[in-house]
TrEMBL record:
Plays a role in the regulation of the mitochondrial ribosome assembly and of translational activity. Displays mitochondrial GTPase activity. The keyword Transit peptide applies. Belongs to the TRAFAC class YlqF/YawG GTPase family. MTG1 subfamily. GO terms for biological process: mitochondrial translation. GO terms for cellular component: mitochondrial inner membrane. Its main location: mitochondrion. Keywords: GTP-binding, Membrane, Mitochondrion, Mitochondrion inner membrane, Nucleotide-binding, Transit peptide. This is Mitochondrial GTPase 1. CDD domains: YlqF (cd01856). It comes from Zootermopsis nevadensis.
Length: 330
């Protein structure tokens, strides 16, 4: 109801159009190589932990994992970045994921070592592996687990957080805010002594063809694709579209606006002025240089506010969730 009122007041867009869908394709060489390395190492692992972003629990998980790496081993799904996710529809999310074959789902926040989900993961691995057939590894005493997922969902952070929790040791896997930090399958990292558990970090792997444009944009918004591929102004525009559509207006204060608008040009211009960010550009008509608001800096600022959680916790998959839940129920 509130949504309809806001939509009729401000006439927000019903759909988001991207001109060039090719921008959503990203499968650099290290991903193909990484996938092959993962398949080769698979016989040495007992279990697979798939990490995904809890803000997009249904979007963007690589469907090829099931045929290539995760389908043949016991499998746990960890929905990470719980601190940024709106979990009001948690039970609906779990119902849809269970229908999809995920019976072991945990939520984690790698920024908080005391997060309750974190202490459930290793016991769940041990229980699951102990009750499964240990193909090729029946003689081994340790538990060896491969951590997989699309880029930037927090695979390396999860390994570091578990290692810190159980061994009190510092970072062993490199972490970064940009997608594609881990570029090949790494050596296994010990995260627990009793039981003896090793985790194997792997490069984030996207599906080569993201056919659903909005899904691609949600991945880009969550930084699973590198920003320059899609363009920060397009990501910012999608963010604005999504916030307006979902009646999330915290951006007004952050971007320096008096009222909601669906026009990204207005939002970025006001924000650039607020931040005092300008660029010296040659005037289109004359040859003079003039100062223009730096829209790119404002777009970065807007996206960063979203990724830091300053615009509020979000569930970007609400629409898919609503349609999937009605299918699960039918
Ligand atoms: N807010 C929040 N940020 C997180 C969490 N886990 C990881 N991050 C951040 O997410 C970014 C990506 O983390 P990584 O651990 O490098 O992700 P990855 O999946 O290993 O990335 P690739 O190497 O690209 O495959 C970093 O900036 C982390 O600090 C979390 O639970 N909450």
């Amino acid at each position: 109801m509130a949504q309809r009122v806001a939509n009729s007041l401000y006439n927000f867009r019903e759909t988001f159009r991207v001109v060039n869908k090719d921008v959503l394709r990203w499968f650099p060489g290290h991903m193909g190589k990484g996938l092959r390395q993962m398949q080769q190492r698979l016989k040495l692992v007992d279990c697979v932990i798939e990490v995904h972003d809890a803000r997009i629990p249904l979007s963007g998980r690589n469907p090829n994992f099931r045929h290539t790496v995760s389908g043949v081993k016991p499998h746990i799904l960890v929905l990470n970045k719980k601190d940024l996710s709106d979990l009001q529809m948690k039970s609906e999310v779990e119902a849809v994921l269970r229908k999809d074959g995920f019976n072991h789902i945990f939520y984690s926040n790698c920024k908080d070592s005391k997060c309750p989900g974190m202490k459930q993961i290793i016991p769940a691995v041990v229980k699951l592996v102990s009750s499964s057939e240990r193909y090729n590894r029946s003689e081994e005493k340790d538990f060896s687990v491969m951590v997989i997922g699309v880029p930037n969902v927090g695979k390396s952070s999860l390994i570091n957080a578990l290692r810190s929790k159980y061994l009190g040791k510092g970072k062993a896997a490199p972490v970064g805010a940009v997608a594609g930090i881990t570029r090949s399958v790494q050596n296994r990292i010990k995260v627990s002594d009793k039981p003896l558990v090793y985790l194997l970090d792997t490069p984030g792997i996207l599906t080569p063809n993201i056919s659903d444009t909005e899904m691609g944009l949600r991945l880009a918004l969550c930084a699973c694709l590198q920003d320059h591929l899609v363009g920060v102004e397009i990501i910012a525009d999608y963010l604005l579209y999504w916030l307006n559509k979902n009646n999330k207006f915290r951006y007004l204060e952050i971007m320096g606006l008096d009222e909601p608008t669906d026009d990204i040009g207005t939002v970025l211009t006001k924000c650039a002025v607020k931040l005092g960010k300008a660029q010296r550009r040659r005037d289109v008509v004359g040859s003079e240089y003039v100062w223009r608001p730096d829209l790119s800096a404002a777009a970065h600022y807007f996206i960063k506010a979203f990724r830091n959680g300053d615009l509020g916790r979000v569930m970007l998959d609400t629409q898919q969730l609503t349609s999937s839940v009605s299918l699960v129920g039918s």
